[in-house]
Amino acid sequence: MKPYKDIAHLFDDLGIRHGASLSFHHHLRNGDAVQNLVLDEVKRRNLKALDLYPSAVFPVHTTLLSLLKAGHIKRLTTNYLNGPVADYFATHGTPDMLRMQSHGGRARAIIEGDNAIDVAFIAAPAVDREGNATGLEGPAACGSLGYAMEDVKHASTVVLITDTLVDRLDGAQIIGADVDHVLLVNSIGDATGILSGTLSLTRDPIGVKIARTAMRLLDALDVVNDGFSFQSGAGGISLRVVDMLHEKMKRDHIRASFFSGGITAYHVTMLESGLVETLYDVQCFDLEAVASLKRNANHIAISADRYANPRNDARVIATLDCVILGATEIDTDFNVNVTTDSHNTIIGGSGGHSDTAEDAGLSIIVTPLIKGRIPVIKDRVTTITTPGSTIDVLITERGVAVNPARSDIQTRLDKAGFSTTSITDLMRTAHALCGVPATTARQVNPVGFVESRHGKRLDTLYTKE
Amino acid sequence: MARSYLFIPGDVPRMLQNMDVFEADAVIVDFEDAIATHTKDEARDLTRAFITKHHENLPDIYVRVNAVEHDDFMRDIDALFGLDITGIVLPKADTHALKRYRETFEKKGEHPLHLIALIETPRACLDMLAIADYPLVRALMLGGEDLTSALATARTNARTEIATARGLMVLAAAAAGIDSIDTPYPVVDHPEGLQADIAQSVAFGFSAKACIHPNHVDAVNRAFTPSQAAVDEARRILAMHEKTGSTRFSLDGNMIDKPIIERAKNVIKQAGIHGRDLP
Amino acid sequence: MKTIVVGSLESSDCLITLQPADKTTIDIESVVYDAYGKRIRHVIERVLSAHQLTRVHVRCQDKGALDYAIEARLETAIKRHKEVNHGA
Fold this sequence. Notes:
The structure holds 3 protein chains of 3 kinds.
Chain A: H1 7-14, E1 21-24, H2 34-44, E2 50-54, H3 62-69, E3 73-78, H4 84-92, E4 98-100, H5 103-112, E5 119-123, E6 126-128, E7 133-134, H6 149-154, E8 157-162, E9 165-166, E10 181-184, H7 205-220, E11 229-232, H8 236-252, E12 256-263, H9 265-272, E13 276-284, H10 287-295, E14 299-301, H11 304-308, E15 322-325, E16 329-331, E17 336-337, H12 353-359, E18 362-366, E19 370-371, E20 374-375, E21 377-378, E22 393-396, E23 399-402, H13 407-415, H14 423-434, E24 446-451, E25 457-462
Parallel strand pairs in A: 1-2, 1-5, 2-3, 3-4, 4-24, 5-8, 6-9, 8-10, 11-12, 11-15, 12-13, 13-14, 15-18, 16-21, 18-22
Antiparallel strand pairs in A: 6-7, 16-17, 19-20, 22-23, 24-25
Helix pairs in contact in A: 2-3, 7-8
Chain B: E1 4-9, H1 13-16, E2 26-30, H2 40-53, E3 60-64, H3 71-80, E4 87-90, H4 95-108, E5 115-119, H5 122-126, H6 128-133, E6 137-142, H7 144-150, H8 163-176, E7 179-182, H9 191-204, E8 208-211, H10 217-223, H11 228-244, E9 249-251, E10 254-256, H12 258-273
Parallel strand pairs in B: 1-2, 1-8, 2-3, 3-4, 4-5, 5-6, 6-7, 7-8
Antiparallel strand pairs in B: 9-10
Helix pairs in contact in B: 2-3, 11-12
Chain C: E1 4-7, E2 14-20, E3 25-30, H1 33-50, E4 56-62, H2 67-84
Parallel strand pairs in C: 3-4
Antiparallel strand pairs in C: 1-2, 2-4
């Protein structure tokens, strides 16, 4: 495969036109240079009515912002977005312009043709002469390429964009047979930008209290046993739970079957000390995870399809025992919002939140009850990211509430002498401290919607107040 | 019987309003060392407003006031008047300070609040029994950092420099029939050091330990709660005691006598107070 | 006439600045203004009127302080104001 060196030639040969649907992955997170590089060419050609499928959008994605401002984007479908692009939608979006999926939902939509992609532009850290590619080599090695795998299989045209050409790659993640073209550039980005989140376990005493309560709940429900499986978000409280889990497993000689999702140094340490059999890695959250993927045979990169596609019976999270997730808001029906704040500002998105909540045997939300005077529990969340029917337990620093739909969990906690309260009582506790907040955000002008992993509309997104 | 006493600065709203979250059996709101001289008034007003307004479900509250010879001592006492608190932690406690403390209330014609005497000078260490016997004093607490400074020595990992004071405190408190509260572990984020220090507190025979950080409370509570094994053992001893009606019998080849039976009763009492919900 | 400053800009706290003025004015900057701005103003007005203070400028830079904390910060400020500015 002879690599292109000029993106203009590539665009000429591909005949990319107005209305094209283009996809990108976000494994380089806020260090990604590929989306800007491609969209700069789109901009030079003044292409319009674009239908874009980046798996996530970060503040680094400035060309996308300028195309939005120029009115050249018809629709954007993504799983997560924050920063200026998110703000643009929340201030200037038009109905149905933004479509927000989950990681599993995106995989399903691509495979089933809901997300019909003309050209997938894949940031590929290292590529060989056959067009085989890996995320493990090269200066911008980002590890797992999980979110790009369906694009590679199902887009009409697949373009790998790389800064590192090698003679031959063993154990490639992407097979040359699935690749149409390779574009060689100076740099696909900066792998240190992977660390764009706050990836350290919390030392805040309220967060520590919540994590400790989560551990006691896991004990009361007897979750942590040989062969159990576990996933958590990368928030500070979740990582503190992972740390406490580590201590407990070491002390009690317990070995987990697998941890899944976004993988961090904390997970790698547990793998390498034999506390967990396998890591199923759809996305590396730090460079230690990237290094581990290279050296540990039981640290396995998986595709978004294998991870969370609801139509794939072999998906990893179908057998997940427990997931620990965060919340920006939660309501008295246990619906969770991690997509917007109470002013309709878009601050993120599901990622794997709604996927894992639905599949895991036990889905736990950990969050402070009060965030800077604002009670986290609402009568109704601003945006439903994850339906309350899939959330089992809420843990706050001032008490634990079980979803009434899970009377089995309630019974087991009662038997174990673990004290719980109701979610409405927790809301009252918050109101007694803070006062009842005035409701502000009106929901008038739609700018898009949240889609469930099965492809149904869950909720509407509106302009910011 | 509190196991943990958590220090909370009196002028930090985030800490005050979460005092019930940290699982300490008691909190000590600090007006003294944690508060700069020019913000003592802020701490007093804030603490008073908080306790007045949010008095439900709070743990036992003590306030560490400024030392009796300090101008702020009287202002502290005045600010606490009528507040629903359990008692006062009196810094630099010695027989002289206790006398001044009592006289202050007598002059105002008020009932003095109960005291935890903070022992942090060499003289106080040698007067501990007299201090413990003083009627208002409910517990002795060791102030290890100030004592170490007064001895012109440095803190060691083994805490050798305060070992004698620790031993004396446990003896004096036991002799007077009051509680002994060990000095807090002074390093915030050093779990191994914390565990080792707590183990010493338990080994010396303290009834509780102070904490300078909320993240220390859980480890202290665990250490001062009888283990399941200890509870089971105590139950077996008491069962045998009831069955035989004797205060002298053999269990698993060990001689059981009166002091051991008394200790078993204490273990059951402690476990009963603090539940057995700790993992 | 001195300006009084009480409190902090830490989370859950507020910084109250109090100055003598021709008439009472209240400025509120709050991270939770939409949800609690009215309530904060009400607390400040109540404390001022309890002290029958009518000629002060109060600035409240709020980082999510609860009512008791705003009240206490203002109380301290008023006490200092009365001491320093001789009950002006």
